Amino acid sequence: MKLELRGITKRFGAMTANDNVNLVAEPGQIHCLLGENGAGKSTLMNVLYGLYQADGGDILLDDKVVKFAGPGDAMAAGIGMVHQHFMLIPVFTVAENVILGHEPTKFGGLLDLDAARKQVREISDRFGFEVDPDAIVGDLPVGVQQRVEIIKALMGDAQVLVFDEPTAVLTPQETDELMAIMKQLRSEGKAIVFITHKLREVKEVADKITVIRLGKIVGEASPKSSANELASMMVGRAVDLDVEKSVAKPGKATFKISNLSAWNHAGTKVLDDINLEIHEGEILVIAGVQGNGQTELTEAIIGMHGKTSGSIELDGKELIGKNVKQVLDLGVGFVPEDRTEDGLVAEFTIAENLMLDRSDRKPFAKGISLQLGYLKKFALEKLKQFDIRAQGIDSTASQLSGGNQQKVVLARELSRELRLLVASQPTRGLDVGSIEFVHEQIVATRDSGIPVLIVATELDEATQLGDRIAVMYKGKVIGVVPSSTSRSVLGQMMAGISA
Amino acid sequence: MKRSFKTSIALSVFTLISLWLSVTAPAGTTLFSFNAGKELFAIPDFEIPVAGASWIVFLVLLVVTGFSWWLSIQRKKTPLWLTGIFAFALVQQVLVVLFVGQMFPVTTTLQGSLALAVPLIFGALAGVLSERVGVVNIAIEGQLLAGAFASALITSITHSLTLGLIAAAISGALVAGILAIFSIKYVVDQIIVGVVVNVLVIGLTSFFYSTVMARDLIALNQPERFDQINIPLLSQIPIIGPLLFSQTLIVYLMYAAVAVVYIALFKTRWGLRLRAVGEYPKAADTVGIKVYRTRYISVMLGGALAGLGGAFFTLGAVGSFSKEMTSGAGYIALAALIFGRWNPLLATLAALMFGFAQNLQSVLSIIGSDVPSQFLLMLPYALTIVAVAGLVGKVTGPAATGKPYIKS
Amino acid sequence: MNKVLKNNVVKQILNPSSLVTLLAILAAFLIGGLLIAFANENVQTTAGYLFARPGDFFLAVWNSVFGAYDALFRGSIFNYKAIDSVGMIKPLTETLAYATPITLAGLGMAVAFRSGLFNIGGTGQIIFGAMGAAWVGFSFDLPAIIHLPFAVFAGVLAAALFGGFVGFLKAATGANEVIVTIMLNYIAGLLLFYVLTTPLFQAPGATNPISPEIVASAKYWRFMGDSFRINASFFVMLAMVAAVWWLLNRSSVGFQFRALGHNPSASKVAGINIGLNYVLVMAVSGALAGLAGTSQVLGAEKFLTPSVAASFGFDAITVALLGRSKPLGVLAAGILFGALRAGAVIMQANQKVPIDIVLIVQSLVVLFIAAPPLVRFMFGMSRAAKKAVTA
Q1: Do C370 and B374 lie within an 8 Å CB cutoff?
Q2: CA C181 to chain centre
Q3: Which of A87, A100, A268 is the mutation pick for testing B, counting most B CBs within 10 A?
Q4: In chain A, which residues have their Cβ closer than 8 Å to the Cβ of B273?
Q5: Domain map of chain B by residue range?
Q6: Interface predicted TM-score of the whole assembly (ipTM), two decimals
Q7: Pick from A386, A427, A456, C291: most CB atoms within 10 A?
Q8: What distance in Å separates the CA atoms of residue C64 and residue C70, rounded to the nearest whole number?
């Protein structure tokens, strides 16, 4: 079935998320929709899937205009979607998840779970998925959950399949497997729309590429174009994908992690005997697929993880057993991976956010009395120093763009007497300009002689920002290698194969 | 599994209480009587020596507690049925001690407990339907009260019990409708709405009781009551006969409601969709399930059930309406819902247990026991706190309960 | 309970719109008026021959509603029909006397709401405050300069501990404070009833559950004379309005409370001790509710009885919501609902309109202010309403 989007326009208030977008996906082809975060890719697909109603334009299937009032209509018309955030109910079984919305029944209303199991097995066997229909989805690894999501998308005999940023949570190996699945689907004659911002994947599977920027289609590209050409189209200007930095001049190793292990609430070991050292004036990047213990590692460092054993030493002082406040007081700067959730209080002003970590002490407070005069002076200074674009220090954090929000977090974290900087995915979801700014600040921190630990999930960022790279897999450090290590070696390490 | 000793510690505390009861057990015996009068054959009364029985119970509790510690050390959970045995045994001990030198009328006490539990069960089912679909239902109290008022008024006027029941269901559904509209359409915090709706219903029913009903109590507040229906043969089985099968229509409706809600929730397409909406509304939306409609229907169906529970106060038990006559039953139903982990069957069991505690208090005051009755009345509330504090296993509701779903 | 919900609550509470607030109050009074008319006997009689003599019907409606709201006014603000000046000003002092515990407890709820905690336990905390204060108040005989502060302190401490316990449970086990506080309200009520039947609290020789009279030295000063219920706790209340304002807006403790209220996880990452703050918030919240309890038992009443908390627990929640959880707003809302309480007494006595109408008006006000689109819809501003719903 051929899919065509013709002149789709979608506005949210004053913002135009999709502006007259055209796109054609042919059966038996993989059509890539390439664009930066926030370029409007997901909005477009939500319009296609009936989740949003377009303000203008048409959706055509096999050259006939169709109208979708909701996802049910889209599914019935033969469109299947593999969502970026899985639309699976963790407490349901695989079979229950897969049949949701078009459940087979018997005796007029009772669920026919046997029929559901059969359907799951059928699709599962066709692609060699090995998914147990009776497993509880929440217990399955992420890669398997995605297969459930794919089975679900295929259930209604879908002819058009949309994959929305499907590789963000996968290992390089799982990514390869997914690519193989997409190719198999293509050979079955499905029309596939593959949404991504990862150039490498585009070049591997795409038959056609459409680039979208700021809600507009900027053009088509051939899979043979170079990565730099594609990146320039995506960003709108010539991009230098490299981070400018001098060669590191490491000093003493002032930050040491020895035999660190940690357990989660369910008692599963999430960190397994971690040993790491970072020198003054050096950036160590923790690379790996999301969910392999990176979050737990940063939590353990700043004192937020419950059950840990082993040792984390900064300047010879033990961090384990200290609470977050005590750790921050020892000079640890922390940039959390989710800045709106963990970094900022959205309803607070910039000024208030800048004192979030030190509101109860001098010079921000005398006794318990806040020193608002000092705060104002401090905030104005930081606004200038970090080039935070805002109406003023009384703008709330929620009014800022992602890049400016991240600058507020950096301004706060870098304004303490730092002895260590920990930043988790500091450029996630940012535009290219902000990414450069954040990278500059991190390199400058390193150059001032401070050990820096960065968590990165994208290999490009890891190799460019890091002086050394530690790869984590299933809570273990698989190895620590120089940043010049080849992608294929790093990819293997990310899949758990030691270098 | 992480080792968790919460349950074991809680059991140990209760075992110590049992030890204390055993050590201080008074001399004498307690008579357990099982007969209500109409059975096919009589079960002989049991005379139980207090001290001996106490020590036996203590030993049972000790074994269970020890086993629980062993399980905890093995990183295993203490199964629910084991905690159930523990609780049952402890209750036996307490009864034996409380009724020393007296007769404990098993069957009639249980009958009274069931009567107190009926509105709680209806209320808890209302809570299940509402919270399973993602709407916190603090307003059970208001739904019960509205049902009680409407059924008394309508049956008094029309002299039709059926119409009274229908009116109760409709008014309960309407109160639930207010909860639903404010929490779904206007996205007001569901706890605020629940608390406020309860007071609104108290205000409305009391206001109309004082102004309209009180003017002519005979015409407007003297409804007929449901007759007891004895089911042939079944009603003559000792203990369970008089307890379960010599009841009014509302009680039989309650049995049906428990079964229907359970089956509908876990075995039907409707229930699967309902639970999907309560766990992850966006996922349900993406497969074409109408999230808002599902929520409205489920919350209001629950309200109708709670309305029937309210009718039990007026048409089943008391025989007339009085101001604030539900006196917190809705909150006990909420407690039963939480204690029963949002499961209709477990919530029913919890409601029965709470009904038993309430009734025991009145039985004790009849025999003139000097045990302060307030502490027995506190039991449902205290147990619920123990439950939400996670001392008896993990208690978590449906993931999306309390969260409004906002379609972008 | 989760962060999304909390933020939602805090946002709804803080969302300012004085027009909507006014219209919400107006709408609630209009509906209250309709109910009063509907329940009025004359209205019902004249409705019987509505088409024959419609004038009678509308006159009856007007008389019932005007009569009721006139009585409400005379009972709460100024009684122009009173025979002497004391009678004229007494209503206003009654309003302020009612407003005192309502506002104090309301401030307590406001502190909790601003910190993202849902304290439904005002009733229980008021009971504990009253129990603590009453016991010290009738058990000792001390100079007033020591006795009153001692009694107040005892009440506040008892309530702070009772409230703090909820915070502790939440911090230690994650127990949902809504459920816990609801259950504790009932436990506190039963406990109060129980202690009032023990020698420790029951007045010697009494057969009903009532405490001995509070010793004079522990009573709040009735500065307008003993025939007025208004007393020195009114000034304590005003001082607390200022104190809570300072706490929330000018102190680092309040800053942390608010940070917690808006975003607990970001607060945690910034080194704010969440568990400790849960305990602190609930202790402060409980202490303020406890102060309301002391105001009742050492001021307005002279004995501890099972009904000491009356409906103040619910009133406190409504004034906190109506006042947007801001201290001055809570004060204004407290005076409004105090006036309703005071006026309703006269309304019931003179016009036979049951006091329950207060509960109806109060709950409608809160429902309406929480749903601005509904208010706009009711007053015909439906286009704006539609926009707000779909936005």
Answers
A1: no
A2: 16
A3: A100
A4: 100-101, 103
A5: 6-101, 114-388
A6: 0.90
A7: C291
A8: 10
The Cα of A139 is separated from the nearest Cα of chain B by a number of Å equal to 13
**Could you tell me the two tokens for A210?**
């459409």
Q: Closest by alpha carbon to A214, among A36, A51, A55, A433?
A: A36
Q: In whole angstroms, how far apart are CA A439 and each of A336, A374, A408, A411, C363? A: 15, 30, 15, 14, 54
Token digits of residue C380: 């015909």
The fold for domain B114-388 equals: ABC transporter involved in vitamin B12 uptake, BtuC (1.10.3470)
Q: How many CA atoms lie within 13 A of C9 on its CB side?
A: 30
Q: Which chains touch C (3 or more CB pairs under 8 A)?
A: A, B
For residues A143 and A174, the answer to whether their CB atoms sit within 8 Å is yes
Is B361 within 8 Å of B339 (Cβ atoms)? no
In the complex, which subunits touch A with 3 or more CB pairs below 8 angstroms? B, C
Give me the mean pLDDT over the B344-373 stretch. 87
pLDDT tens digit string along A99-152?
Answer: 998 898 888 789 999 999 999 999 988 888 889 999 999 888 888 899 999 999
Q: What is the pLDDT of residues C330-371, one digit of tens each?
A: 999 999 999 999 999 999 998 889 999 999 999 999 999 988
Number of alpha carbons in the 13 Å side-chain half-sphere of residue C94: 23
Please tell me which residue, B168 or B366, carries the higher pLDDT value. B168
Residue B195 C-alpha, separation from nearest chain A C-alpha, in angstroms? 27
Structure tokens at B368: 């003139």
Whether residue A71 is preceded by a cis peptide bond, meaning omega within 30 degrees of 0, is no
* Residues of chain B neighbouring A10 (CB-CB closer than 8 A): none
Q: How close is the nearest chain A Cα to the Cα of C84, in Å?
A: 49
Please check the confidence at residue A240 and state whether its pLDDT lies above 70. Answer: no
What integer best gives the mean pLDDT of chain A?
89
Verify whether the Cβ–Cβ distance A345 to C268 is below 8 Å. no
A contacts of C270 (beta carbons < 8 Å):
324, 328, 356-357
The pLDDT, as a whole number, for residue C383 is: 53
Inter-chain touch B279–A87, beta carbons under 8 Å: no
- What pLDDT digit, counting tens, does each position of A287-343 carry? 988 788 999 999 999 998 878 999 999 999 999 999 999 999 999 999 998 888 899
pTM, two decimals, is 0.89
Distance CA C28, CA A270 (A): 56
> Which amino acid type is present at position C49?
Y
DSSP B315: I
Which residues in chain C are closer than 8 Å to A370, comparing Cβ atoms?
A: 250-252, 255
Consecutive H or E run containing C385: helix C382-390
Model confidence pLDDT, tens digit, residues B96-111: 888 888 888 888 889 9
